[in-house]
Specification:
Elements (H helix, E strand, L loop, with lengths): L25 H7 L1 H49 L7 H11 L3 E6 L2 E7 L8 E4 L5 H14 L4 E7 L6 E7 L1 H53 L16 H52 L7 H22 L15 E4 H12 L8 E5 L5 E4 L1 H20 L10 E9 L2 E8 L6 H5 L16 H12 L3 E5 L7 E7 L5 H11 L1
Parallel strand pairs: 3-4, 7-9
Antiparallel strand pairs: 1-2, 1-5, 4-5, 6-8, 9-10, 10-12, 11-12
Helix pairs in contact: 1-2, 2-4, 2-5, 5-6, 6-7, 8-9, 9-11
Amino acid sequence: MPMRDQGDNPSAENPAAGEGARAPCPSARMFGGLSGKLLWLTVFFIMLAEILIFFPSVASMRLRWLQDRLNTAAAAAIVIDGLQPVELPRALQKETLEATGTKAIVLRKEGTSRLLATTDMPASVDEAYDLTDVPPVTAIRDALDTLMFGGSRIIRVYGPVGDTSTGVEVVMKDRQLRTAMFAYSRNVLLLSVLISLFTATLIFFAINRILIGPIRRLTGSMQQFSSDPENPAHIYIGDGGRDELAVAGRNLTSMQMELQKTLKQQKNLAALGLAVSKINHDMRNILASAQLMSDRLVDVDDPMVKSFAPKLLRTIDRAVGYTTEVLSYGKASESAPRRRPVRLLELTQDVKDMLAIDPQSGIEFAEQIGAELEVDADGEQLFRVIHNLCRNALQALTSGEGAAGSARRITVSAQRVGSVVSITVDDTGPGMPLKARQNLFAAFRGSARSGGTGLGLTIARELVLAHGGTIALVEKPTAGTQFRIEIPDRPVSLDDYRSRTHIEK
């Protein structure tokens, strides 16, 4: 069967594509993931520590081995020395040397040296070692030298016998010493491997249970939630611990729940936008017909009709303008303001007429605005701002929850300070509840009444910010709610200033 190229398999480049993609098995994730890395790192570091310990330990082992040979030779030397003046037979000397593993034994006593036993005495020695006081660095150096280059050298070793002034000296081959050092190194290596594997395994399972397991649960929850964020079953459920991972799990749960809530709101907003666009299409047609009919009212020769016709026309024009821009909020932006000087008192009176406050309600509407005060703003957008604030105030006063014995009043005041016009909308209602204050200017969360959407304040804020101004809730000692709007004049360009001054001259 011919081999198929990887290009014929769409999952060759992307293993996650198609139905053939498989998640790695648990053992592969365990040993190839973070826990596997921890296992091998533990083994590596323990072996590194054992290697660092090995050098002084093998040096100590070499000194002990040499000291044992020296002690054995010293015991034989003392016995032989006690036989003076009888000389030890050659056969017995050979047996003594074979028992001690040496080629010659010399006893140093009272400033003299005596050769007690010897056989096949070499002509020269390759190395000499004094075991009286060996520094650690020298011991390690000599041990490494024996391991790498020893095995066929003749060495001379000498040192004291116990705490006396008597010394003993032996001549021997270092083959047995090197063999013993290799055996010791092999045992240390095997023991180090066993200790490292055992320790790493314990650490592996402990960390895997305490750390890796919860992390794997967190990552798994993130992957499931990202694949289907609207499914409540994919929200992470922690174990209620107090460590850092438990805190991270609780934060992840809170974030996922908040994200699901936001996604649900966005989905509702999308459905609402579609519904509004459909309603807006038909509403524009209805308002266009009403606009044509209202135009004919201007020709009616009736004083009452002539007084209300202009206000009715302006109201319908505003409604037509609103239907044209009704989807601007859904696009997260309002149209740029078309600024011009606007008489604020006239605009406020239009707001009063639009509110149509029932005279029997006992609610007053007061304007504290100079007749000549003008604001540099888009008249229609500023009308929407003040109308939204006054309508909220009227709804609060209509609820009948104002302070006992106080007048129910809406007051709109304004003044100019330099190039900034400050507008205040004040009421004597029950005030704004705490939840509405915490979510001020937030759509669908900042409403002060049941069933409200909070869009009025959100739209007002966006329109004021488009003018480069500010809007804020003002704390007041008495009951009620007060908003302050500050709108600056547009900066005048140098060319406009020169043209104006030229015309005035």
